[in-house]
Structures are given as structure tokens and as C-alpha cells.
Amino acid sequence: MKSFSVRGGPKFMLDEASVLDIGRCFVNGTDISPGRAIPDDGDPRIDHSLEGFLFTCGPDHIRHPAPISGRSDGRKYPLHGSFSAHPAEIVFWDGAPENGQEDGEETDGECRARIRVTMATGEPALLDRHYRIDHQSGEVSLTDRVTNVGTKPFAAVHMYHMNIGAWLFDDHVSLSGAMFEGGRLPWNFGAEPGSVFCVPAHDGAENSADGGRDNVAGGWAEMRLGPIAAIGGLTLRVKFRTDTLPYLQMWRNQKNPAHVLGIEPVSHRLADREELEKSGEIRMLKPGESIDYALCFAFV
Predict the structure, then answer these.
(1) CB 22 within 8 A of CB 53
(2) Architecture of domain 2-299
(3) Separation between Cα atoms, residue 270 and residue 197, nearest integer Å
(4) How does pLDDT run across 101-150, given as a tens digit for each residue?
């Protein structure tokens, strides 16, 4: 794990052994990642990734295992796809805690990496990953470009899991955003001990608590989680690009030992892969083609 931060922003650990996803994430000195308070789905790659604050699903599959079409050997796309456990090659790094010039002038933290991925079919893909932390606002941006460097098309599917230890929450913590009915709902939505739902990122804006579409203008959606008293009353604000991530999935699990909430911008609605393929909702990325995804977050 490699520490990445600037003064005034969150400090997190980037996992060089697994796609440069975010492991532990410290806000005002408190680690908000779930750690071992997670369910075990039987895949050690995902078990490791789920412990952290952010991990990435894809590029060939998202959600639970599904058969690879056209195969007679019963092989499946793995849980949450093939990204996890692929090492990252860092090509640029400027993210030390003391980031800045000798005269005290501070600069943004920045990191670029290249990840070569072998998918479940054996075909290759390339992920170019770019993190930046704004040294003034503390906002973190992540942009990803996935390129088909193989010889066959593959499904362009993608999901970010942002996981927070829910033991940090009290009854005043809520979710807000135009995509939620009425614009707001409690963090512990749904049936106990856990629940999941997936909604279009732009739906419901006309009914939102803040009165309109300001938080989905320009092809980006925004949602918030907070205020979180355990980190000084801050609220987590998440924005994501909606042309390639048009849905928001929300997940929580409080079945012991799990105690976690997940914020999950995603490329496709919650449905079986076979259903999405039959309805023509999955775009196939041809050899040589690329697709871009992006999100940003801040504690405000």
C-alpha cells in the first residue's frame, strides 16, 4: 500500500497489488473503510478489495458470477469481474503528505498508473488510471480509461464500490440526491439486516429536496452521505459521470460481522447479465476502442 494525500484532504492508501484501488481512508484521523466488517462471498480477491474504501468492478463483468456465453466448459465471469488483484504500474507520482515547494507553496497531489488486465476469457484489457487531489478543496478525482488491446470485443461494464464502515453512523446520517425519491432517505434504508437498490442517476430530480436538477447538470450526478459526527460532522459528497455511469446502486449489510454501506456508481441497471445482453443494453468494446469513466469525492 502506498500513502497518497495532500494537506487538508483525506489520506488514503493506494493498493499497488490490486488496480491501485483505495484501501484505508483517513478523514480527520479516522479510518472510514470497513476493514473486516464485510460479508465473505468466497472469492479472496474480492474479500481483500471489499475491505478498502474504493474498489473497481469490470472491465468484463460486474456483480455476481455469470456464465461466459459460447463456452461449453461451464466457466463463469468471476464475482465483480476481473480487475481485482491485477498489479498497477505507476507512471507518475506526486502524492506525499508534505506535497509542496520549499517556499511553502502547495500543489495538487497526482498519480497516474497503467494496469494490464487478463479477463476471464483470457483476452487482455488496459486500464489507464489517474488520481488527483485538489490541495485547496481536498476534492479527490478519479478518471479511468479502459482500452480493448485484445483481438475480440468484450462487454464494457464498470462499477465503483465506495465502502464505508457503518458503525460510524448515527440516526442523523442520511442519503440525499436527485436520484432518490423525495430527494432524501435514511442511511439504513430497506429491510434488516441489509438491502440493495439501483436507480437511474437522473431520475426524480424534479422531486428532489434541493428543488431541481442543479446536481445533475453537465453530465454529472451528485449524491451526499452525512453529516457524520464521527469525522467532525463532515458529509461525503460524491459526483460521477453519467454518460458511462448512468445508474447509482446503493448497498448496505448489517448482518454480523458485516457493518458496511456501499455507494456504487455503475454502468448498468440491476439485472442479470443475460437479460441485459438480450435487451441490447450492453455495449461491446471492439479491439482498439476505449471508454472513459470518472468520479470525484470530497468531505465537506
Answers:
(1) yes
(2) Distorted Sandwich (2.70)
(3) 8
(4) 444 457 889 999 999 999 999 999 999 999 999 988 999 999 999 999 99
